[in-house]
Write a structure and sequence with these properties.
The chain is about 55% helix and about 10% strand. The protein is α/β, with parallel strands linked by helices. It has a single domain, classed as Rossmann fold (3-Layer(aba) Sandwich), CATH 3.40.50. The protein has a seven-stranded parallel sheet, sandwiched between helices. Strand 4, helix 3 and strand 5 form a beta-alpha-beta unit. The chain is globular. It starts with a strand and ends with a helix. It binds NADP nicotinamide-adenine-dinucleotide phosphate. NADP nicotinamide-adenine-dinucleotide phosphate binds next to helix 1 and helix 5.
């Protein structure tokens, strides 16, 4: 049996870093990409490569290197992502585009690049790291939620198109997980907020609410999520969605099924936090 080959984006930190370690430990050949190559974990079977998923030339080089060196691709793990947080009125269109290019279009382009190889093999899987925020939403996370909701639909449509070739596209929806993600998202709120912004009270209220929430809910570790990624990549009968916890699954489902109630709940919480 050939050594399995996985391409992981965003492998320099958090869940992507932990996933690169886990797949390597299990004997996979790992092509791990990120902009900060020096932060990608080192191991004999990890190839650390420079990758900016918003750059087509970089995406092409990443996939070409893996195909040239390994001769096959079993899994593409689209994990790279960040939160371009801020009020929708004030986030610049340039930053909104960057959010969609990183969290959605980069993943889509990489899939286009690996699919011909997977089709030829007659086997392969695209594993997309979305979020519970791909079903629910909260103020200030507008473009992030748009990107993750879109990633979910994109994955579902892709799955219906590629099953005929023996291929699958699946989604993982992590909830709060220990990584650099929240720090970057919170920095982006400050960056995107205009001077004397009328949204400052909403930002203060939301931050306070989030802090209270993170004080009560226990965040998962990146290593725990990497195990979910592993399941999604290797399940004999892949599921459409993967969650870390029952709570994450229920939250996502409630927001989807009871969309009106969820919207009223968010509106009420925002009103009380102002
Ligand atoms: N942490 C959470 O609570 C949480 C919850 C739900 C979903 N998620 C999702 O999980 C995924 C992993 O996030 P994380 O929590 O592990 O955050 P993280 O620690 O901030 O890691 C994000 C990774 O994405 C990479 N990345 C960002 N922009 C990139 C680009 N243009 N090109 C290539 N790589 C890029 C970063 O690498 P470089 O900066 O070196 O390029 C880094 O390795 C993301 O898609 C995130 O949205 C996170």
């Amino acid at each position: 049996m050939d050594q399995k080959v996985i391409l992981i984006t965003g492998a320099s930190s958090g869940m992507g870093y932990a996933a690169a370690q886990l797949f390597a430990k299990n004997g996979w050949q790992v092509f791990a990409g990120a902009r900060r190559v020096s932060k990608i974990p080192r191991a004999a079977n990890i190839h650390a490569l420079s990758l900016d998923v918003t750059d087509s030339t970089s995406n092409q080089a990443f996939v070409a290197t893996a195909v040239r060196e390994a001769g096959r691709v079993d899994v593409l793990l689209n994990n790279a992502g960040y939160g371009e947080y801020g009020p929708l009125e004030e986030v610049s269109m340039a930053n909104a585009r960057k959010q969609l290019e990183t969290n959605l279009l980069g993943a889509a382009e990489l899939a286009q690049l690996v699919l011909p190889t997977m089709r030829e093999q007659g086997t392969g899987r695209i594993v997309n790291v979305s979020s519970v925020g791909g079903d629910l939403y909260w103020p200030l996370g507008g473009w992030y939620h748009v990107a993750k909701h879109s990633l979910n639909v994109w994955s579902d449509v892709l799955d219906t198109e590629i099953r005929q070739f023996g291929l699958h596209s699946v989604v993982i929806e992590p909830g709060g997980t220990e990584s650099s993600w929240s720090e970057i998202a919170m920095k982006n709120v400050t960056k995107n907020l205009k001077e004397n912004s009328p949204y400052q009270p909403l930002v203060n209220g939301t931050m306070k609410f989030m802090q209270r929430l993170s004080g009560t809910a226990s965040a998962a570790t990146a290593a725990e999520l990497a195990k979910v990624f592993y399941r999604a990549a290797t399940d004999a009968r892949p599921k459409r969605r993967y969650y870390y916890s029952v709570t994450d699954r229920l939250m996502a489902r409630s927001a989807r099924v009871h969309a009106g109630t969820f919207h009223r709940l968010v509106t009420l919480v925002v009103k009380r936090s102002l």
